[in-house]
Design a protein that fits this description.
Elements (H helix, E strand, L loop, with lengths): L1 E6 L4 H12 L3 E6 L8 H14 L4 E6 L3 H8 L6 E3 L3 H11 L3 E5 L5 H13 L6 H9 L11 H4 L11
Parallel strand pairs: 1-2, 1-3, 3-5, 4-5
Helix pairs in contact: 1-5, 2-3, 4-5
Length: about 160
Amino acid sequence: MRVAIGADDRGPLLDRLVAELDRRGAQIERFGAIADGSTAWAQIGRAVGEAVASGRADVGIVCCWTGTGISIAANKIPGVRAALCADAETATGARKWNDANVLALSLRVTAPAVGAEILDAFLTTPVSDDPGDRTEISEIEPRSAARTPPASRSGAGTRRRGTPH
């Protein structure tokens, strides 16, 4: 398994996650504080997302103080489905029903032991092959830029003075 992992700070949670990945024999590509000391969470989130989207990594893990900002950054990469998880059950659902491919964790609130449980759930839960679940997952993929914009953006529903309606 190839895993991209990035964080904007080092600490016990990251040490535990990397140890768990090593124990599983994962090939690890590191970004941010655990690679070059960088603390630029948006760039780290995008870099992990790009590693997953390009196929260099099977899954990604991103961590910042809340987990929110770095997950938003990762989710800007087409094909990435980053899920911020605070417990193993949420990670299970994120993999099973949402086909999440990037796990996001909060450095502030995730204890290392809980982080290991979340990681285990994320890595061992298969993605659902239920047709309804697959349809829902396809609905969250980015749409073509050529789609018709919503009425509020296209000017539809607005009328210039003096024009017929």
